[in-house]
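Lab notebook, bench 4. The sequencing result for the construct came back, and we need a structural model before the next group meeting so we can plan mutations. Quick request posted to the team channel:

Model the 3D structure of this chain.
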Amino acid sequence: MDSIEFLNFSKKIISLSPLDEIDYRQVVGRSYYCSFHKVRSKSEELGLPIDAYKGGTHSSLRETLISLRPANPKLKGIAFRLNNFHTLRIVADYKLDIEVTAKSANESIQMCEKILTELSTITSL
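Done. Here's the predicted structure in token form:
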């Protein structure tokens, strides 16, 4: 499966009516996972050691991109964006006392698309 399907599924959900909060939470989560898998795939393509840091897979990937020497500003920016996106995904998946809205869902789709656009401009370290 191509991870773009996560984003396509998010767009499919957001186009339905009526929507409930669970739908918004799914959009956030699926959009995040599209971004995560695309960033991971690009990192592997570039030959980066994506599991070189302690912690979970998500934090290790971000730390790899942030700690590159020489630094790659585009990858570093993507890592920070992915970190913020991960925080939103944690809210959507685990913080049931915090409301996830249509605005958050739509912003997550836009965030994913922005990360994918930025990734497409990176061809080397």
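The chain has five helices and no strands.
Will bring this to the meeting.
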